[in-house]
Design a protein that fits this description.
This protein has 704 residues and is an alpha+beta fold. It is 38% helix and 20% strand. α1 packs antiparallel against α2 (33-49), α3 (89-103) packs antiparallel against α9 (264-277) and α16 (508-514) crosses α17 (522-540). Bound molecules: 2-(butylsulfanyl)adenosine (IVH). 2-(butylsulfanyl)adenosine (IVH) is lined by residues 81-83, 113, 115-116, 120, 136, 175, 227-228, 289, 308, 311.
Length: 704
C-alpha cells in the first residue's frame, strides 16, 4: 500500500534531517551532494503541490524567510550570565582557591573549554521541536532570531530522540560563529565583487545572525557549538560532562575540544595548550572558560553581579600593544611600489618583539591621522605583518609631524608617480637598484629558485658593489669574489656556489614564478607552465639550441626552456586570457612582460648562464599524471605547514583527485596537518589511511 502524501512528506523531512545531522553535526555523510539535492527537490515538489502541508520546521523552510522590520524581544527564562575574567595562571589559581573555600572541599572537578569568540544564543525546544531562538542581548532580554537560526543546517529543527525520548522543554545555549577559513573566503569573494570586507569573524557572525533578511543569513556559512542550558523539563542534567555527552545524542553539536580537569594544574595546562595552538584552531578563541563540573556544586556557589562564582574565563593576553612611532620610512618593492613603513620603538607583543609595521599607503596614513612621534596601538594577528591600529591623539605633545609622501624614489631619485586609480606611488625606473634587489630576493626565494645561503644583506652588498647587475650575474659569481665580501667565509662561498649550480635546473613553474611577473603567483605560474609545456613540446623539435650550449650537458633541458620561453613570447594577450584561470589583467601583464626587449634580453642571459629545465620525471607521463589520483578522495585536517589548504586542494584536483570535507568510509586518505581535529580520530575509527604532510607531499611530487 502506498504512503499518503502526508506520510511521504514526513518521511522525506525525517530523511533530509538525518542527512543534515550526518553531514553538519557528526561529519559522517552517507549521501553525495547530488543524492541529497534529489531528496530535497522531491520534498520541495511535493510541498509545492500541497502547500497546505508545509510546516515551519520543514527543511525547505531553512532557506530564509522574508525580511522582518525589526526583531521582537524574547525574555530568557533563566538569565544568560557572563564570565568573570582571569588573565593568567595566578588568577586561575585564585579562582580555584575561592571555589574550594566556598565548597569546603578539595575534590573539585572542572571542565575547561575554548572560549568561542562569536555570539551567544539560546534555542528553545518544546517536545523536541525548535520553537524559538534568541540572542543573549543584555542577558535578560534578547532578540528573536528564530528565522535566522533556522537557516543553520547544524541546528536541528527537531531533536533526535535517543531511545524514543525527548524532553518536554530544553533551552539550550551555544555560540554562533564563523570558521576562519570561511571568513577569509567570504572576504575574498567580497573583495572580488568590490564590496567592503568584514573586520573579523566575530563581527561577521554577529552581523549575519542579526540580519533582518534571513536569506542573507542562509547564504553564509555560520556554525554553532552548544555548551550550556537554561530551563529543562522532563529530564535532569547533572554536570557539564553529562551535558556535553547528552547534547550530541539529541543532534546538538558540541565542540569536541574540551578537557575534564581534576586539578587547577590541569586547567592551566589546558589554558597554555589552547593558547599555544589557537592559530591552528578552525575558529577564533579568545581564551578558555573553566566551569565547575557538578551542577549541584554550581547551585551552592551561586552568582554575584551577573557572573557565576562557578565559572571563569581565562583570557589570552591581548595581541595589541602601545608604543611610539619614531619615524616613517619608504621602502621600494619589486614592482616599484613605494610603501611607507613605520619605524617603532620596539615593543613585545605575544612574546615577539615588534619594531616595524606596514602602513600600506599614504591614504591609510591620512585616514588614520597617523603622525611621526605619535603613541600608537600596534596589533599582531597571527603571523601576519604587524599593523598600526590607531594613533592616540590624546597623548600628543605638539611635537608630532605629519608624514609627506616623497615625490621621488628614495633609492634612485627618479620621479615617483601616483598611478591613476591606485593608492600606491611607483618608481617607474626599471633599473632602480632598490627594485632590482627586491627582484633578486624574489628570484632566489623558496617558491622560486630556492637558493639557500643568500639573504638580503648579501644581495645588498652584491648590488651596491656593482658585482650583480642582472639576474644572470648571480650565476657568474666566483669563490674569490664571494670570499672578498663582508662576513663571508670560504665554507659559505662553496655552499652558495653549489646551491646556485643546482638551482640552474628547475621546473618551468618555478622559473616563471621567479621572474616576478605582476599578478603571477605560485599557482598561476603553475597554470601557465602547464599550458606552455603542452604547446612547446611541438615547438621544441624544430628548434636549435643556443649554439654555445650545444656541448653543455643540460642541452636538452636548455632547449626545452628555450622552447617554452619562445612560445610564451609568441602568445598573444587574447590567447593568454583564454587559458583557464588566467584573467585579463594577468594575461595583459604576462604578454607585456614577454614583449619587453629588456626582459627578452634578461631571459636570453639566463639561458646563456645555463638555466635549464629538469628532465621530465620517470614514471607517469603528463597525461597520466593528471589522472594519477583519479577519483581518490582526500580529507584534510589540521594546518599544513608547506602550503595552504586551498593550494593542497588544487594540487590534488589537478591530479584528478577529489577533496571532501568530512571523513567517511568512502574517503581514501586523511591528510594530517598540525593539530589535527576530530577527523583524525574518525579516520582511525573507520580505518581510513592517514597521511602525514611529508607523505602527502611525496605522493604529490611523485605524480606532478
Ligand atoms: S557557558 C557564564 N561556554 O561567553 C556561563 N560561554 O561571558 C556562560 N562563551 O556571551 C555560558 N565560549 O558568548 C560558555 N564554551 C563556552 C563559551 C561561552 C564563549 C561566551 C558566550 C557568553 C560569554 C559570557
Amino acid at each position: 500500500m502506498s504512503l499518503s502524501v502526508n506520510q511521504e512528506i514526513e518521511r522525506l523531512r525525517a530523511e533530509i534531517e538525518r542527512h543534515n545531522h550526518l553531514y553538519f553535526v557528526i561529519n559522517q555523510p552517507e549521501f553525495s551532494d547530488a543524492e541529497y539535492d534529489a531528496l530535497f527537490q522531491k520534498l520541495r515538489d511535493l510541498e509545492a503541490q500541497h502547500p497546505e502541508l508545509v510546516t515551519v520546521d520543514s527543511p525547505t523552510q531553512r532557506v530564509g524567510s522574508q525580511p522582518s522590520a525589526a526583531f521582537a524581544s524574547i525574555e530568557h527564562s533563566v538569565p544568560m550570565l557572563s564570565f568573570g575574567n582571569a588573565f593568567d595562571a595566578s588568577d586561575l589559581r585564585d579562582f580555584d582557591r575561592r571555589v574550594r573555600t566556598l565548597l569546603n572541599t578539595e575534590d573539585i572537578v572542572y571542565v575547561a573549554e575554548p572560549k568561542l569568540d562569536g555570539l551567544a544564543v539560546e534555542l528553545v525546544y518544546r517536545k523536541g521541536r525548535f520553537v524559538s531562538g534568541a540572542t543573549r542581548g543584555d542577558g535578560r532580554m534578547g532578540e528573536d532570531v528564530t528565522a535566522n537560526l533556522r537557516t543553520l543546517r547544524s541546528v536541528p529543527l527537531r531533536l533526535r530522540d535517543p531511545d524514543g525520548f525527548t524532553p518536554e522543554l530544553l533551552e539550550v545555549r551555544g555560540e554562533v560563529f564563523i570558521e576562519k577559513e570561511s571568513f577569509a573566503e567570504l572576504n575574498r569573494e567580497r573583495r572580488d565583487d568590490g564590496l567592503a570586507s568584514f573586520a573579523n569573524p566575530r563581527n561577521l557572525a554577529a552581523g549575519t545572525l542579526r540580519q533582518l533578511d534571513a536569506r542573507v543569513t542562509a547564504s553564509r556559512p555560520l556554525s554553532i557549538y552548544f555548551y550550556d542550558v537554561g530551563l529543562i523539563e522532563g529530564m535532569t542534567i547533572e554536570s557539564q560532562q553529562h551535558l556535553l555527552n547528552t547534547l550530541p545524542e539529541f543532534g546538538l553539536r558540541v565542540n569536541p575540544l574540551f578537557r575534564v580537569c581534576e586539578s587547577i594544574d590541569a586547567v592551566i595546562a589546558f589554558y597554555e595548550k589552547v593558547q599555544a595552538e589557537r592559530q591552528a584552531l578552525a575558529y577564533e578563541a579568545d581564551g578558555i572558560v573553566v566551569k565547575v563540573d557538578s551542577f549541584a556544586a554550581r547551585g551552592l556557589l551561586g552568582t554575584v553581579s551577573r557572573s557565576p562564582r562557578w565559572a571563569i574565563a581565562g583570557k589570552f593576553p591581548a595581541s595589541q600593544g602601545m608604543t611610539k612611532l619614531n619615524d616613517i620610512i619608504v621602502s621600494v618593492g619589486r614592482t616599484g611600489a613605494l610603501t611607507p613603513v613605520a619605524v617603532l620603538e620596539p615593543v613585545r607583543i605575544h612574546g615577539v618583539e615588534i619594531s616595524s609595521a606596514t602602513l600600506h599607503n599614504e591614504d591609510e596614513i591620512l585616514r588614520k591621522d597617523i603622525r611621526i612621534g605619535d603613541s600608537v596601538i600596534v596589533e599582531r594577528a597571527g603571523d601576519v605583518i604587524p599593523k598600526i591600529v590607531r594613533p592616540m591623539p590624546e597623548l600628543r605633545t605638539g611635537d608630532e609631524r605629519a608624514f609627506v609622501m616623497p615625490t621621488t624614489c628614495p633609492a634612485c631619485s627618479s620621479e615617483a608617480v601616483r598611478m591613476e586609480a591606485e593608492s600606491a606611488y611607483r618608481c617607474l625606473n626599471t633599473s632602480c637598484p632598490a627594485r632590482f634587489k627586491q627582484s633578486v630576493l624574489h628570484f632566489i626565494s623558496k617558491g622560486a629558485l630556492d637558493i639557500e645561503g643568500m639573504g638580503p644583506q648579501l644581495i645588498t652588498q652584491l648590488v651596491d658593489r656593482g658585482i650583480v647587475n642582472s639576474l644572470a650575474d648571480l650565476f657568474t659569481l666566483d669563490r674569490d669574489t664571494l670570499i672578498g665580501l663582508d662576513r663571508f667565509g670560504p665554507k659559505s662561498a662553496d655552499n652558495l656556489l653549489a646551491a646556485l649550480d643546482s638551482a640552474k635546473h628547475t621546473t618551468l613553474a618555478r622559473f616563471l614564478f621567479s621572474l616576478g611577473i605582476p599578478g603571477v603567483g605560485a599557482h598561476l605560474a603553475k597554470v601557465l607552465a602547464q599550458a606552455t609545456e603542452e604547446g612547446s613540446k611541438r615547438l621544441q623539435d624544430r628548434l636549435d639550441v643556443v649554439p654555445d650550449l650545444l656541448a653543455h650537458k643540460s642541452a636538452e633541458g636548455s632547449k626545452r626552456l628555450r622552447a617554452s620561453l619562445d612560445l610564451l613570447a609568441q602568445t598573444s594577450e587574447e590567447e593568454m586570457a583564454s587559458i583557464h584561470e588566467i584573467g585579463p589583467l594577468s594575461a595583459h601583464a604576462i604578454a607585456a612582460f614577454f614583449a619587453s626587449d629588456q626582459n627578452r634580453q634578461m631571459l636570453l642571459d639566463l639561458l646563456r648562464a645555463g638555466l635549464a629545465l629538469e628532465p621530465p620525471r620517470e614514471g607517469p607521463s603528463q597525461d597520466r599524471a593528471r589522472t594519477a589520483l583519479a577519483a581518490r578522495r582526500f580529507v584534510f585536517t589540521g594546518s599544513l605547514s608547506s602550503m595552504t589548504r586551498s593550494e593542497a586542494g588544487e594540487r590534488v584536483e589537478s591530479l584528478g583527485g577529489i577533496v571532501a570535507s568530512s571523513v567517511s568510509k568512502n574517503i581514501d586518505y586523511v591528510v594530517l596537518g598540525d593539530n589535527p581535529g576530530s577527523k583524525a580520530d574518525k579516520a582511525r575509527e573507520l580505518g581510513v589511511p592517514l597521511l602525514y604532510e611529508s607523505e602527502f607531499l611525496e605522493m604529490l611530487e611523485s605524480y606532478e
